[in-house]
Every structure is written in structure tokens, then in C-alpha cells.
Amino acid sequence: MLVFYLSAIETNEDKNRFKEIYKELRQSLYLDALSIVKNPEDAEDIVEDTFLKVADNFTEISQKNRQKMRAYIVIINRNNAIDRYNQNKKSLEKNDDTPLEEIIDPSYFDSFEYDDLYNAIKKLPPKYKDIIYLYDLLDIGTKATAHALHISIDTVYKRVSRARALLKRLLEKGEINE
Q: Cα(143)–Cα(130) distance, rounded to whole angstroms?
């Protein structure tokens, strides 16, 4: 990827300076982005976007002293990460538009046969299957479930409620056999 960035820079002196900055900052920018978006692939994309912006404007950026240039790049990266985080959050909210159902106690499912319950869980969409597995079956706490799935605690509660409602519907309709 470094070769791609260098193609946007004109002089050899600037290319060498860019290489130094790239090697110096790449890892810390990645870790900073990762701490914001909590997703390695997104963090990688953010760092690439950051260096692309830096390469496109390197003539202007390189006029700053090293400390100011570093601060400028860190700010670009952080803003890219915050933008991606907000995009992901909006996307998650749009995809999580199933209406909230009545609260279903997990003991409701105790009266069903294991095979029926297992087959019904398999039919759930992945985001609901995961939440049922972690929260109800493995009895992992809300905070740990949220962390494991990279979602908010509020989203855990919403998804648990929705997953249980879907599971209840599947079991009541008898739509559990493959």
C-alpha cells in the first residue's frame, strides 16, 4: 500500500519523508482508530484513508514542522475514526428496526423440547442467534455481551427482547423443522 501512497507524491525528498512518517505513525494510528471503532478491518481502512489524504496533500503538510505534522495526521485519523464510528452506529440503528415486543422471560422456553428449541434458534437471523447464544444460553452478562458483539448495552437489551419474541413466534407456529 505504501507504493500506492508514494505515487501521489512528486519529489524523492517528499517520498522519503513520507516513508519515515508512515513507518513512525502507522501502528499508533491503527491502535487509535481501533480504540474508537472496535473493529480491526474498519481501523485498517481508516488508517489507509488517513494516509491517502496525507499523500494527496503532502506538499502542504510537509511545510509544517515534524511535531505539527504529526499532530495534524493524528487529528485526521481520529476524525476519520469518529466518522466511521458514527456511520456504523447509524447503520446499526437502521438495521435494528424490528419493533420491540413484550418482555418474555427466558423461563418461558423451559417447557419446550431441546431439539425444538435448538432448531428454532438455528432459524433466527445471525444477530439474534448470537445474542440468544451469549446472553441466554451461556449466561454471559450484558456488558460482556455488548463488548463481544461490539454493540451498546441498550442494543443488547433490544436484541434479547426481539430475539426471544421471534423465538417464541417460531415455537408457537411450529415452524422449527428444517
A: 15
Residues 9 and 79 in one domain: yes
101 falls within a domain: no
For residue 166, being part of any structural domain is answered with yes
Question: Is the overall model pTM greater than 0.70, yes or no?
Answer: no
Measured CA to CA, the distance from residue 151 to residue 154 in angstroms comes to: 8
Pair 91, 155 in one domain: no
Q: What is the pLDDT along the chain (178 residues), one digit of tens a residue?
A: 777 778 888 889 888 999 999 999 999 999 999 999 988 888 999 999 999 889 888 888 888 888 889 999 999 999 999 988 888 777 665 554 444 445 677 777 778 888 888 888 888 888 888 888 888 888 888 888 888 888 888 888 888 888 888 888 888 877 555 4
The domain of 153 spans 106-173
Cβ pair 26, 47 in contact under 8 A: yes
Where is the domain boundary, 73, 95, 117? 95
Q: Are residues 7 and 86 in the same domain?
A: yes
Question: Per the structure block, which three cell numbers stand in for 33?
Answer: 482508530
CB atoms within 10 A of CB 124: 18
Q: Which of 114, 120, 113 is nearest to 163 (CA)?
A: 120
